[in-house]
Specification:
ten-stranded mixed sheet, 16% strand, 11 helices
Protein backbone atom coordinates (compact mmCIF):
# COMPACT_ATOMS: atom_id res chain seq x y z
CA UNK A 1 0.00 0.00 0.00
CA UNK A 2 1.43 3.37 -1.03
CA UNK A 3 1.49 6.58 0.97
CA UNK A 4 -1.59 7.99 -0.80
CA UNK A 5 -3.57 4.90 0.17
CA UNK A 6 -2.38 5.31 3.76
CA UNK A 7 -3.59 8.93 3.79
CA UNK A 8 -7.00 7.80 2.47
CA UNK A 9 -7.16 5.17 5.21
CA UNK A 10 -6.47 7.77 7.89
CA UNK A 11 -9.09 10.09 6.40
CA UNK A 12 -11.71 7.33 6.51
CA UNK A 13 -10.88 7.00 10.22
CA UNK A 14 -11.63 10.70 10.73
CA UNK A 15 -8.07 12.09 10.65
CA UNK A 16 -7.01 15.04 8.54
CA UNK A 17 -3.30 15.13 7.85
CA UNK A 18 -1.89 18.63 7.69
CA UNK A 19 1.11 20.49 6.30
CA UNK A 20 3.09 19.87 3.14
CA UNK A 21 4.82 16.81 4.62
CA UNK A 22 1.66 15.42 6.27
CA UNK A 23 3.51 14.51 9.46
CA UNK A 24 0.88 16.23 11.62
CA UNK A 25 -2.82 15.51 12.02
CA UNK A 26 -6.06 16.65 13.61
CA UNK A 27 -9.24 14.75 14.50
CA UNK A 28 -12.50 15.61 16.25
CA UNK A 29 -12.58 14.13 19.74
CA UNK A 30 -15.52 11.91 20.73
CA UNK A 31 -16.23 14.21 23.66
CA UNK A 32 -16.28 17.30 21.46
CA UNK A 33 -19.10 15.65 19.51
CA UNK A 34 -20.87 14.57 22.69
CA UNK A 35 -20.58 18.06 24.14
CA UNK A 36 -22.06 19.63 21.03
CA UNK A 37 -24.96 17.21 20.61
CA UNK A 38 -25.88 16.23 24.15
CA UNK A 39 -23.84 18.54 26.48
CA UNK A 40 -22.09 15.45 27.86
CA UNK A 41 -18.55 16.54 28.65
CA UNK A 42 -15.17 14.86 29.02
CA UNK A 43 -13.70 14.17 32.46
CA UNK A 44 -11.04 16.78 31.66
CA UNK A 45 -13.72 19.47 31.75
CA UNK A 46 -14.97 18.13 35.08
CA UNK A 47 -11.54 17.86 36.70
CA UNK A 48 -9.19 20.31 35.01
CA UNK A 49 -10.50 23.88 34.62
CA UNK A 50 -10.64 25.79 32.31
CA UNK A 51 -11.18 22.93 29.83
CA UNK A 52 -14.28 23.11 27.61
CA UNK A 53 -14.89 19.86 25.73
CA UNK A 54 -16.53 21.48 22.70
CA UNK A 55 -13.59 23.86 22.27
CA UNK A 56 -10.77 21.29 22.40
CA UNK A 57 -8.50 20.91 19.38
CA UNK A 58 -7.17 17.35 19.41
CA UNK A 59 -4.04 17.02 17.29
CA UNK A 60 -0.55 15.64 16.97
CA UNK A 61 2.49 17.41 15.53
CA UNK A 62 4.04 14.08 14.57
CA UNK A 63 2.30 10.86 13.56
CA UNK A 64 5.40 8.72 14.17
CA UNK A 65 6.20 6.98 17.44
CA UNK A 66 9.13 5.19 19.10
CA UNK A 67 6.78 2.70 20.78
CA UNK A 68 4.45 0.02 19.46
CA UNK A 69 2.15 -0.20 22.49
CA UNK A 70 -0.16 -3.20 22.53
CA UNK A 71 -3.06 -1.06 23.73
CA UNK A 72 -2.63 1.73 21.16
CA UNK A 73 -5.65 2.25 18.90
CA UNK A 74 -3.52 3.57 16.03
CA UNK A 75 -2.29 1.68 12.99
CA UNK A 76 1.36 0.62 13.21
CA UNK A 77 3.60 -0.20 10.25
CA UNK A 78 3.21 -3.90 9.54
CA UNK A 79 -0.17 -4.23 11.27
CA UNK A 80 -1.74 -5.09 7.92
CA UNK A 81 -0.18 -7.14 5.12
CA UNK A 82 1.76 -4.97 2.71
CA UNK A 83 1.25 -1.83 4.80
CA UNK A 84 4.66 -0.48 5.82
CA UNK A 85 5.96 3.06 5.99
CA UNK A 86 8.83 4.94 7.57
CA UNK A 87 7.92 6.76 10.79
CA UNK A 88 11.33 7.60 12.24
CA UNK A 89 13.21 9.87 12.14
CA UNK A 90 11.61 13.08 10.91
CA UNK A 91 14.05 14.56 8.39
CA UNK A 92 14.89 18.29 8.78
CA UNK A 93 13.88 19.12 5.21
CA UNK A 94 10.37 17.79 5.80
CA UNK A 95 9.84 19.67 9.08
CA UNK A 96 6.72 21.85 9.09
CA UNK A 97 6.78 25.22 10.85
CA UNK A 98 4.78 25.47 14.11
CA UNK A 99 2.68 28.40 12.87
CA UNK A 100 1.55 26.48 9.80
CA UNK A 101 0.75 23.36 11.81
CA UNK A 102 -1.40 25.22 14.33
CA UNK A 103 -3.15 27.40 11.75
CA UNK A 104 -3.94 24.47 9.47
CA UNK A 105 -5.06 22.31 12.40
CA UNK A 106 -7.59 25.00 13.34
CA UNK A 107 -8.81 25.25 9.75
CA UNK A 108 -9.13 21.50 9.16
CA UNK A 109 -10.92 21.13 12.48
CA UNK A 110 -13.43 23.78 11.38
CA UNK A 111 -14.04 21.81 8.20
CA UNK A 112 -14.67 18.64 10.20
CA UNK A 113 -17.08 20.47 12.52
CA UNK A 114 -19.11 22.20 9.83
CA UNK A 115 -21.53 19.27 9.54
CA UNK A 116 -22.80 20.05 13.04
CA UNK A 117 -24.10 23.45 11.93
CA UNK A 118 -27.48 22.20 10.78
CA UNK A 119 -27.92 19.56 13.45
CA UNK A 120 -31.10 20.35 15.42
CA UNK A 121 -29.49 18.88 18.56
CA UNK A 122 -26.66 21.43 18.47
CA UNK A 123 -27.12 24.88 20.00
CA UNK A 124 -25.96 27.54 17.53
CA UNK A 125 -24.06 29.54 20.12
CA UNK A 126 -22.24 26.42 21.27
CA UNK A 127 -21.41 25.51 17.68
CA UNK A 128 -19.92 28.95 17.00
CA UNK A 129 -17.86 28.69 20.19
CA UNK A 130 -16.57 25.29 19.07
CA UNK A 131 -15.15 26.85 15.91
CA UNK A 132 -12.81 28.90 18.09
CA UNK A 133 -10.80 26.39 20.16
CA UNK A 134 -9.46 27.43 23.54
CA UNK A 135 -7.35 24.32 24.16
CA UNK A 136 -4.92 22.34 22.01
CA UNK A 137 -4.29 18.77 23.13
CA UNK A 138 -1.12 17.26 21.67
CA UNK A 139 -1.80 13.53 21.81
CA UNK A 140 -4.16 11.85 19.32
CA UNK A 141 -1.55 9.62 17.67
CA UNK A 142 2.22 9.21 17.66
CA UNK A 143 4.66 10.77 20.14
CA UNK A 144 4.48 14.60 20.15
CA UNK A 145 7.92 15.11 21.72
CA UNK A 146 9.55 13.71 18.58
CA UNK A 147 8.57 16.95 16.82
CA UNK A 148 11.68 19.17 17.22
CA UNK A 149 9.99 22.55 17.84
CA UNK A 150 7.43 21.71 20.50
CA UNK A 151 8.04 25.03 22.29
CA UNK A 152 7.15 26.81 19.07
CA UNK A 153 3.83 24.96 18.92
CA UNK A 154 3.00 25.98 22.48
CA UNK A 155 3.82 29.61 21.68
CA UNK A 156 1.72 29.57 18.49
CA UNK A 157 -1.22 28.02 20.32
CA UNK A 158 -0.98 30.70 23.01
CA UNK A 159 -0.98 33.46 20.36
CA UNK A 160 -4.34 32.10 19.22
CA UNK A 161 -5.84 32.02 22.70
CA UNK A 162 -5.33 28.32 23.43
CA UNK A 163 -3.88 26.59 26.45
CA UNK A 164 -1.97 23.38 25.69
CA UNK A 165 -2.09 19.85 27.03
CA UNK A 166 0.82 17.55 26.17
CA UNK A 167 0.65 13.76 26.45
CA UNK A 168 3.98 11.92 26.23
CA UNK A 169 5.32 8.41 26.72
CA UNK A 170 8.23 9.94 28.63
CA UNK A 171 11.02 8.79 26.34
CA UNK A 172 12.30 12.28 25.53
CA UNK A 173 13.27 13.82 28.91
CA UNK A 174 15.70 16.23 27.26
CA UNK A 175 12.80 17.73 25.31
CA UNK A 176 10.70 18.22 28.45
CA UNK A 177 13.66 19.82 30.25
CA UNK A 178 14.20 22.30 27.43
CA UNK A 179 10.57 23.31 26.84
CA UNK A 180 10.07 27.06 27.15
CA UNK A 181 7.27 27.68 27.78
CA UNK A 182 5.92 24.49 29.29
CA UNK A 183 2.43 23.28 28.35
CA UNK A 184 -0.47 24.21 30.63
CA UNK A 185 -0.78 20.53 31.60
CA UNK A 186 1.68 17.69 31.10
CA UNK A 187 0.68 14.03 31.01
CA UNK A 188 3.23 11.22 31.30
CA UNK A 189 1.91 7.78 30.36
CA UNK A 190 3.04 4.98 32.65
CA UNK A 191 2.23 1.60 31.10
CA UNK A 192 4.16 -0.69 33.42
CA UNK A 193 5.78 -0.84 36.88
CA UNK A 194 8.95 -2.70 35.84
CA UNK A 195 11.26 -3.22 32.88
CA UNK A 196 9.99 -6.69 31.93
CA UNK A 197 6.33 -5.67 31.81
CA UNK A 198 7.26 -2.45 30.03
CA UNK A 199 9.00 -4.32 27.21
CA UNK A 200 5.92 -6.51 26.70
CA UNK A 201 3.29 -3.74 26.87
CA UNK A 202 5.06 -0.74 25.29
CA UNK A 203 7.30 -2.62 22.82
CA UNK A 204 9.81 0.25 22.53
CA UNK A 205 11.83 0.72 19.34
CA UNK A 206 14.76 2.33 21.17
CA UNK A 207 17.08 0.38 23.44
CA UNK A 208 17.21 2.85 26.32
CA UNK A 209 13.48 3.60 26.45
CA UNK A 210 13.09 2.34 30.04
CA UNK A 211 16.01 4.45 31.23
CA UNK A 212 14.59 7.48 29.44
CA UNK A 213 11.20 7.01 31.08
CA UNK A 214 12.86 6.83 34.48
CA UNK A 215 14.75 10.03 33.75
CA UNK A 216 11.46 11.75 32.91
CA UNK A 217 9.93 10.53 36.17
CA UNK A 218 12.88 11.95 38.11
CA UNK A 219 12.74 15.41 36.48
CA UNK A 220 8.96 15.71 36.68
CA UNK A 221 8.92 17.40 40.13
CA UNK A 222 11.09 20.22 38.75
CA UNK A 223 8.72 21.07 35.87
CA UNK A 224 6.58 23.96 37.03
CA UNK A 225 3.27 23.15 35.39
CA UNK A 226 0.25 20.95 36.15
CA UNK A 227 1.56 17.38 36.02
CA UNK A 228 -0.38 14.14 35.63
CA UNK A 229 0.72 10.50 35.64
CA UNK A 230 -1.65 8.35 33.61
CA UNK A 231 -1.70 4.61 34.18
CA UNK A 232 -3.57 2.61 31.53
CA UNK A 233 -4.85 -0.60 33.10
CA UNK A 234 -4.86 -3.80 31.02
CA UNK A 235 -6.55 -6.59 32.94
CA UNK A 236 -4.15 -9.35 33.99
CA UNK A 237 -1.36 -7.86 31.86
CA UNK A 238 0.09 -4.89 33.75
CA UNK A 239 -1.79 -4.89 37.05
CA UNK A 240 0.75 -6.72 39.21
CA UNK A 241 3.55 -5.09 41.19
CA UNK A 242 1.55 -2.25 42.74
CA UNK A 243 4.65 -1.37 44.75
CA UNK A 244 6.44 -0.59 41.49
CA UNK A 245 3.71 1.82 40.41
CA UNK A 246 3.67 3.41 43.87
CA UNK A 247 7.43 4.00 43.66
CA UNK A 248 7.03 5.79 40.33
CA UNK A 249 4.24 7.98 41.68
CA UNK A 250 6.24 8.96 44.76
CA UNK A 251 9.29 9.86 42.66
CA UNK A 252 7.26 11.83 40.11
CA UNK A 253 5.30 13.72 42.77
CA UNK A 254 2.56 14.69 40.26
CA UNK A 255 -0.43 16.88 40.97
CA UNK A 256 -2.76 14.10 39.83
CA UNK A 257 -2.76 10.42 38.91
CA UNK A 258 -5.29 9.04 36.45
CA UNK A 259 -5.98 5.32 36.56
CA UNK A 260 -7.70 4.59 33.27
CA UNK A 261 -9.12 1.46 31.70
CA UNK A 262 -7.70 0.20 28.43
CA UNK A 263 -10.40 0.43 25.75
CA UNK A 264 -10.73 -2.39 23.23
CA UNK A 265 -10.91 -0.15 20.17
CA UNK A 266 -9.17 0.45 16.84
CA UNK A 267 -6.17 -1.61 15.84
CA UNK A 268 -5.63 -2.79 19.43
CA UNK A 269 -8.49 -5.24 18.88
CA UNK A 270 -6.15 -7.21 16.62
CA UNK A 271 -3.41 -7.32 19.28
CA UNK A 272 -5.34 -7.98 22.48
CA UNK A 273 -8.35 -10.04 23.54
CA UNK A 274 -11.52 -8.25 24.54
CA UNK A 275 -11.13 -9.37 28.16
CA UNK A 276 -7.95 -7.28 28.44
CA UNK A 277 -10.36 -4.36 28.89
CA UNK A 278 -11.06 -4.11 32.64
CA UNK A 279 -14.42 -3.44 34.24
CA UNK A 280 -14.90 -0.22 36.17
CA UNK A 281 -14.69 -2.19 39.39
CA UNK A 282 -11.23 -3.41 38.39
CA UNK A 283 -10.10 0.20 37.86
CA UNK A 284 -11.57 1.27 41.20
CA UNK A 285 -9.80 -1.59 42.97
CA UNK A 286 -6.45 -0.75 41.36
CA UNK A 287 -6.86 2.95 42.18
CA UNK A 288 -7.78 2.22 45.80
CA UNK A 289 -4.74 -0.03 46.23
CA UNK A 290 -2.48 2.63 44.72
CA UNK A 291 -4.06 5.24 46.98
CA UNK A 292 -3.28 3.15 50.04
CA UNK A 293 0.37 2.82 48.98
CA UNK A 294 0.99 6.45 48.01
CA UNK A 295 -1.24 8.60 50.19
CA UNK A 296 -2.89 10.06 47.08
CA UNK A 297 -6.63 10.23 47.70
CA UNK A 298 -9.42 9.17 45.35
CA UNK A 299 -11.00 12.45 44.24
CA UNK A 300 -13.36 11.38 41.49
CA UNK A 301 -14.31 8.86 38.86
CA UNK A 302 -15.85 9.01 35.40
CA UNK A 303 -17.34 5.70 34.39
CA UNK A 304 -18.01 6.53 30.69
CA UNK A 305 -14.22 6.73 30.21
CA UNK A 306 -13.33 4.15 32.85
CA UNK A 307 -11.08 6.52 34.79
CA UNK A 308 -10.45 7.26 38.47
CA UNK A 309 -8.69 10.42 39.66
CA UNK A 310 -6.17 10.47 42.51
CA UNK A 311 -4.75 13.68 43.99
Amino acid sequence: MGFEALVRLYERQGYRLIGRSLHSAVKICHWTKESLRFRRVCFKELWYPPVESHRCLQMTPYMGCNHRCLYCWRLHPGDRPGLYWRELPLSPDSLEEPSRIVEEAIQRRRELLIGFKGNPKVDERRFLEALKPTMMTMSLSGEPTLYPDLSGLIVEASKRGMITFLVTNGTMPEVLESLDPLPFQLYVSLSAPDRKTYSVISRPLIEDSWERLNRTIDILPSLETRRVIRITVLKNLNTKNLDGYASFVKRADPDFVEVKAYEWVGESQKRLPRDAMPFMEDVRSFAKALSDLTGFEVKGEFEPSGVVLLA
